Amino acid sequence: MNTSWWQGLRRACGRSLALLVVGGAGGGCVSGSEVLKPPFAQPFEAWRAEQSIEAEFDVREEVFYAFNLRFFYNPDQPQDRHRVWDLTGGNRKDAATGEWVTPGVPLVLRLTVVSMTGGQPGAVVHDGDIRQPKETSIGSGVLVSRLQAIKLAPGRFKVTVRSLQDAPSLSGVRTDFQVVRAYMGK
Q1: pLDDT tens profile 37-84
Q2: Contacts for 186 with CB less than 8 Å, ≥ 6 apart
Q3: Which residue, of 37, 60, 74, 138, has the fewest CB within 10 Å?
Q4: With respect to CATH, is domain 31-181 assigned 3.40.50.1820?
């Protein structure tokens, strides 16, 4: 048996399976013209200036939706979690002073949400800059920074998020942009 052919086939199948799994985890595969429904996520290199993503999505229920930036870390490596925690502005006590500090990396993003009417942009629902997003929640392998929570009525919307400056210290951290139903507390 030709082992290089077999190894090539295994690599190709593994990539296809990985793409299928990643697409499914984000609420469906994302293509340029596909209309999404929350929850969904898209990879986003937030650390690079002028990087942007946009997506059209349908809302079926009038509730608050969270527009999040997620930072991933290796949950099996505590030092990786601490590194990402510091980069994303997680609070910690300074060992030297005993005071609480919120380090974080300067990161400036522009978030724009527009209603869509008949396939054309309509009213601007939100347009603003977020400076140095802070960690707002934590999961296994991910720190979440809520950029904005917006109450949306049923309809179609277009979201655009753009990085406005370089943040090279975040270059080794996998990030994505996420839209989900917002948890607003008890």
Answers
A1: 999 999 999 999 999 999 999 999 999 999 999 999 999 998 998 889
A2: none
A3: 60
A4: no
How far apart are the C-alpha atoms of 38 and 113, rounded to whole Å? 14
d(CA 106, CA 167): 7
* Total residues belonging to the chain: 186
CA dist 72 and 90 (Å) reads 14
Among the residue ranges 32-41, 144-153, 170-179, the one predicted with the least confidence is 32-41
SS3 78: helix
Q: Residue ranges of the domains in the chain?
A: 1-30, 31-181
Does an H or E element contain 79, and which?
A: helix 78-87
Q: What Å distances lie between residue 113 and 98, 99, 134, 160, CA to CA?
A: 41, 38, 20, 7
Q: How far apart are CA 183 and CA 69, in angstroms?
A: 15
Ramachandran angles phi, psi of 116, nearest 5°: -115, 135
CA distance 67 to 47: 17
The rounded distance, in Å, linking the Cα atoms of 68 and 177 is 6
